[in-house]
Amino acid sequence: MTPQTARLFARVAWIGLILWQFAWLYLLPVPLGKENLTFALVMTVPLLIPLPGILQLKDRALIWGAYLALFASMLGMTELWTDAAERPAAGLQLTLAVAFLFFVARATRRRKD
Q1: If DSSP codes are grouped into helix, strand and coil, which group holds residue 30?
Q2: Neighbours of 69 (CB within 10 A)
Q3: Which pLDDT does position 113 carry in this prediction?
Q4: Where are the alpha helices (DSSP H) in 1-113?
Q5: What is the DSSP letter of 44?
Q6: Which residues fall within 8 angstroms of residue 95, CB to CB, at 6 or more apart?
Q7: DSSP character at residue 24
Q8: Which backbone phi and psi does 34 adopt, to 5 degrees?
Q9: To 10 degrees, the CA torsion angle through 33, 19, 88, 77?
Q10: Cα–Cα distance, 78 to 72 (Å, whole number)
Q11: pLDDT at site 109
């Protein structure tokens, strides 16, 4: 996988993570989600900070996004571990966050020439 392809996949994973996190925390009904607008905004708005740079495929924004994706993965892991009803939603959250981290690692690693 080339770094440019990894950047493109990272961008898709980041947009998916933002959309899924908001949908999970606000739009899904209570057994699967939280239906809490305040919680959804508190958890989703920080993910919007590096979005312009990620859309432009800038390495620095991808790395900042990776730091924020760690928090998203912690939320997914915590809910996956503690709430049986939310396991499918939390699993998707965790999958998107880890996919983003994987693609950022592939896109930004330095190669020895």
Answers
A1: coil
A2: 24
A3: 57
A4: 3-22, 37-44, 51-55, 59-82, 87-108
A5: H
A6: 76
A7: I
A8: -105, -30
A9: -90
A10: 10
A11: 86
Average pLDDT of the residues of the chain = 95
Q: List % helix, strand, coil for the chain (3-state, nearest 5).
A: 80, 0, 20
What's the whole-number mean pLDDT along residues 25-49? 94
| Measured distance CA(88)–CA(8) in Å, rounded | 26
- Whether the pLDDT of residue 43 is over 60: the answer is yes
Q: Which is nearest to 88 in space by CA: 31, 14, 37?
A: 31
- Report field, pTM of the whole predicted structure over 0.85: yes
- Tens digits of residue pLDDT in 2-12: 999 999 999 99
Contacts for 79 with CB less than 8 Å, ≥ 6 apart? 86, 87, 89, 90, 93
